[in-house]
């Protein structure tokens, strides 16, 4: 089975189990969420569900519009029933690395407003420790003028290497939906207390958000090569 099919089975199962009528639904970002929105659109049409969708990125907003779903915002829907989102890696404590697609800030804002955060992913994202499988590091969204001192403070404290994320179809760095830069921290110590790390990094002036989601995820669905889904709860 392809990775895409593994993503799809996880996404479909999560939407079927968590999305109900009269639901405020947080729409995550990334490749796996595409299948979640596809399944949601099918159910809205078949079951006449009433669902308001809150996006976590420009991509998520476009998905909602493409499928003719009801678009909402936090101004009018500050409490979300469930958010379904992807992850770059999930450890045995249900700590997440997110932000590989550059949407970590809005993803964390929406997750923080949600009664439940549910992660959907393929089997390659399921790890014992952060860094076992995902080798691109922890993303950190920063104010552009501060990226050098932030980089230095984190590496002096915890080691590893930090790179400014480069854009692909643009000269220079990636610029987020919020107009910021992203640093990718390739950490070397896998036994850090991620809650402490998150608190330290977020206190550095110029840091907007870090792609560590600690004690936020309540359930994860991992699509497997044979077409089954492994579920894990916090």
Automatic annotation (TrEMBL):
Catalytic activity: aldehydo-D-ribose 5-phosphate = D-ribulose 5-phosphate
CC terms in the record's Gene Ontology section: cytoplasm
Pfam families: Rib_5-P_isom_A
Gene3D superfamilies per the UniProt record, alphabetical: 3.30.70.260, 3.40.50.1360
Molecular function as annotated in GO: ribose-5-phosphate isomerase activity
InterPro entries in alphabetical order: NagB/RpiA_transferase-like (IPR037171), Ribose5P_isomerase_type_A (IPR004788)
Top-level EC class: isomerase
Record flagged with keyword Isomerase: yes
Source organism superkingdom: Eukaryota
Pathway info: Carbohydrate degradation; pentose phosphate pathway; D-ribose 5-phosphate from D-ribulose 5-phosphate (non-oxidative stage): step 1/1
EC numbers on record: 5.3.1.6
Alphabetical UniProt keywords: Isomerase
GO biological process per UniProt: D-ribose metabolic process; pentose-phosphate shunt, non-oxidative branch
Family: Belongs to the ribose 5-phosphate isomerase family.
Name of the protein: ribose-5-phosphate isomerase
UniProt source species: Papilio xuthus
Lineage: Eukaryota, Metazoa, Ecdysozoa, Arthropoda, Hexapoda
């Amino acid at each position: 089975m392809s990775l895409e099919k593994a993503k799809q089975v996880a996404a479909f199962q999560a939407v079927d189990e968590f999305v109900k009528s009269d639901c405020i639904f947080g729409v995550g970002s990334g490749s796996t969420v595409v299948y979640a929105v596809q399944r949601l659109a099918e159910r809205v049409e078949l079951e006449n569900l009433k669902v308001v969708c809150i996006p976590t990125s420009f991509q998520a907003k476009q998905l909602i519009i493409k499928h003719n779903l009801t678009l909402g915002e936090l101004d009018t829907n500050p409490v979300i029933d469930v958010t379904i989102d992807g992850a770059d890696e999930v450890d045995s404590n249900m700590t997440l690395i997110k932000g590989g697609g550059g949407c970590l800030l809005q993803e964390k804002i929406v997750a923080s407003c949600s009664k439940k955060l549910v992660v959907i992913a393929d089997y390659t994202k399921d790890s014992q420790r952060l860094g076992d499988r995902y080798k691109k590091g922890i993303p950190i969204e920063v104010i552009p003028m501060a990226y050098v001192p932030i980089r230095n403070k984190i590496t002096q404290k915890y080691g590893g290497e930090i790179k400014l994320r480069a854009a692909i179809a643009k000269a220079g760095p990636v610029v987020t939906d919020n107009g910021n830069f992203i640093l990718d921290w390739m950490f070397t110590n896998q036994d850090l207390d991620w809650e402490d790390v998150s608190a330290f990094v977020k206190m550095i002036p110029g840091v907007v958000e870090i792609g560590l989601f600690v004690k936020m995820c309540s359930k994860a669905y991992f699509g497997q090569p044979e077409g089954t889904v492994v579920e894990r709860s916090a």
